[in-house]
From TrEMBL:
Residues 4-268 form the Nucleotidyl transferase domain. Keywords: Nucleotidyltransferase, Transferase. The keyword Nucleotidyltransferase applies. It comes from Sporolactobacillus laevolacticus DSM 442. This is Mannose-1-phosphate guanylyltransferase.
Length: 458
């Protein structure tokens, strides 16, 4: 069996920690076996390794999440990078083409697709393995896995079975999206399951759909013609048209950690970051990503979340409203994790007199990591090294850097930096347009950079 994890979305439900660059699956608020803070995607991949599925897993994602995934999972996990966001059908179709032409997966092999961030016991992933047997036994087009409901929820979609003989699986009649409580009760009585977004098919099933659309089956060719894929969900494009769908019940623990009230229920600690929560602040959680202390006095059943993107103080039960409240609020991400480390925006100003922007960042580069050899066209940068030692490359010359050094990087200047020990620097960008797209990369690896620099100074 091959697994495809879908990693997408940005979302505002966990604002201010989640943003366009850091989706909920990347928030390090859970605790791993070593009592270290970890994210949902790190937890899921650890569980997949536990059941022997890690090596057969690929992740379908967008360009904006590549560095975050590599930062948290390393570079050994294959990533299928969508050229643009076009919903789940194009993402899964591209993943199918990747498995078909870039791996040894056969057309008869079973592919399971699931979200990258389920909060479940490891038994959940063992149950996914049973989908292959179910496809063998039933000859179905699609095999889904549904969670046996524990209460009549209005938040989830339901997989509704056909009426008839009870088996260890169900034949799917139809789907019902987010019913009211009364209808949800009725659906549970009919043995309906919560739709947790897990389904399996034989690779040939999706490859044949690509053929019918007249699209290339080769991964690289399909990637180049990605915009021709219909912008539609897999549910509408494939599931609703399938003639024979079965579903496997899962009766273990499953939870959607998509809101602050559900996420805090699973956090191992009441407080992350600097601050004080008074003893009479019962069932209150504080997550503070800033260096400033936050004090919470006499406030119970609340979430206080502080990040460079903003500050949220909310009653936990009311916290799901944040998505609606933040609708239309748009700003650049103020914190990002990259494959080499992370950065936090400290200040941003725009000066109308000369039409210039000034952006100040605090950048952390992990020991042994390096920023690519690149240049910018619309800005200059001033770097002040505040911690650690490393090497700086500029227009073919490499020299050492240390705390107190100041580097001025003019526009069109090729430059890179490597941390011989963990580096911290303050970067001030000055230019007419400060956007992440203003970058022209030449080399990614430090070995390539050294090979193309003629001078090395101590």
């Amino acid at each position: 069996m091959r697994l495809v994890l879908l990693s997408g979305g940005s979302g505002k439900r966990l604002w201010p920690l989640s943003n366009d660059a850091r989706s909920k699956q990347f928030l390090r608020v859970l605790e791993d076996r070593e009592k270290q803070l970890s994210s949902m995607v790190q937890r899921v991949f650890g569980q997949l390794n536990d059941v022997g599925l890690g090596d057969s897993t690929v992740i379908a994602t967008g360009k904006g999440q590549v560095e975050m995934l590599e930062n948290q999972l390393g570079k050994d996990v294959p990533l299928i990078v969508e050229p643009e966001r076009r919903d789940t059908f194009p993402a899964i179709a591209l993943a199918a083409a990747y498995l078909y032409t870039m791996t040894e997966t056969s057309l008869n092999d079973v592919v399971s697709v699931l979200p990258v961030d389920p909060y479940v016991d490891t038994a959940f992933f063992k149950r996914i393995l049973d989908l292959e047997t179910l496809l063998d036994d039933t000859g179905a087009d699609l095999a889904l896995m549904g969670v046996k409901p524990t209460y009549p929820s209005e938040k989830y979609g339901y997989i509704v079975p056909t009426k008839g003989e009870s088996k260890n699986y169900i034949n799917v009649d139809h789907f019902t999206e987010k019913p009211n409580t009364e209808l949800a009760k009725q659906l549970i009585e009919e043995s309906a399951l919560w739709n947790c977004g897990v389904f399996a098919f034989r690779l040939n099933y999706v490859i044949s759909i690509l053929e019918s659309l007249g699209l290339p089956l080769n991964y690289e060719e399909l990637s180049q013609q990605f915009a021709k894929l219909p912008k539609i969900s897999f549910d509408y494009a494939v599931v609703e048209k399938a003639k024979n769908i079965v579903a496997l019940p899962y009766e273990g623990f499953w939870k959607d950690l998509g809101t602050w009230n559900t996420l805090t229920e699973e956090m191992a600690t009441q407080q992350i970051g600097k601050g004080i929560i008074s003893d009479d602040s019962e069932n209150t959680h504080l997550i503070n990503e800033l260096d400033l202390p936050v004090t919470v006095l006499g406030v119970s059943n609340a979430i206080v979340a502080v990040s460079p993107d903003g500050i949220l103080v909310s009653d936990k039960e009311q916290s799901p409203r944040i998505k609606e409240v933040m609708k239309g609020f748009d700003q650049r991400p103020m914190y990002e994790e990259r494959q080499w480390g992370s950065y936090r925006v400290l200040d941003y100003s725009r000066y109308s007199a000369n039409n210039e922007e000034v952006l100040t960042k605090k950048i952390k580069i992990d020991e042994g990591a390096n920023i690519s050899y690149h240049c910018h066209h619309m800005r200059q940068e001033v770097w002040t090294i505040v911690k650690g030692h490393g090497r700086y490359a500029e227009n073919g010359v490499i020299r050492s850097i240390k705390p107190g050094d100041v580097v001025i990087v003019q526009a069109e200047t090729l430059h890179a930096i490597k941390a011989d020990e963990a580096l911290e620097l303050i970067e001030v960008q000055i230019g007419s347009q400060l956007i992440e797209e203003d970058i022209d990369r030449k080399f990614m690896k430090w070995e390539e950079i050294e090979a193309n620099c003629s001078q090395v100074r101590g």
